[in-house]
Amino acid sequence: MKNWIKILCIVITAVMLTGVFAGCKKEEKEETEKTVKTYFLIFDSNGGEFTDNKKHIYTVNKGEKCKDIVKNLPGVEKQNEYFFRWYSTELQAEYDPELIITSDTVFIAQWYESDVMSESRLQGTWSGNVSMAELIESNEIKELPCDFESDANIKVHFTFEKGKVTVFVTEEDLVSAVPAYLDDLKDNIDKNDDLLYDVVKTAYGLESRKAAKTYTKEHAPYFKKAWRKAVKESIEAFNVKAFAQKLTDSNKRYVLMQKALYKMDAQTNILKISDTELLIAVDNKNGDMFTFTKASGVCSCYKGCSFERKK
Question: What is this structure's pTM?
């Protein structure tokens, strides 16, 4: 009888140990599964050279964003060609700092030939200073004076599709650009009486600067200093969002050219859009710059403006 009891105890102990070992293995497996997966984020110079002579291969934890790892995009250069963008063929997308990494990812440098006008040369986002006076006048904006010369840094976007080009500015771009112009306008009110009267003329729909001057003398707050303060307060209260919405369409875009026909001239490096509307000359020495050499209609504020590639 005692032997049977011993055997039973041994069996029970063995079963318990098996359960303990199984539990340990299960915990070990769960712990392994909890381990964060890591991936490689690689930049391929595609025939070019990194300006810092280093390899740019990063280890990224699953779920991290590119910007968490890459603080500054690597610089690259290639003889007789210009850098266009970092592009992932797997993702079919260009580099975005907000991209969340969920697999090994390679961004390849894309290049364009320095001496040839091409779609890839202009495709994308550019940034430059635009004449706000021209923009206000060409779009018949009544809330702001069109005689005040001041620039605003604005992004412009080019998209090429099926032989046609669309050139536009987003509502967000306008909302970001206008405050600097308003600050400039406000600062100059203190220095320029004519500008003060121009703003009053615009605000009250008067015919001339002279009429505006008379108006300030005959209406409260009567004194020039007080009028300056009142005008500056009105500028501060200017609704930038509403201004941008007035210019933009239902897609929140201020469209300069919509699916317009264009011609590329590789010899002169000039892009001609709709024959008479826009001429865009790319800098032969710096492919990341171009100038609107001719602009009319709603594009007139861009005439003579130089733009740089927005990184």
Answer: 0.63
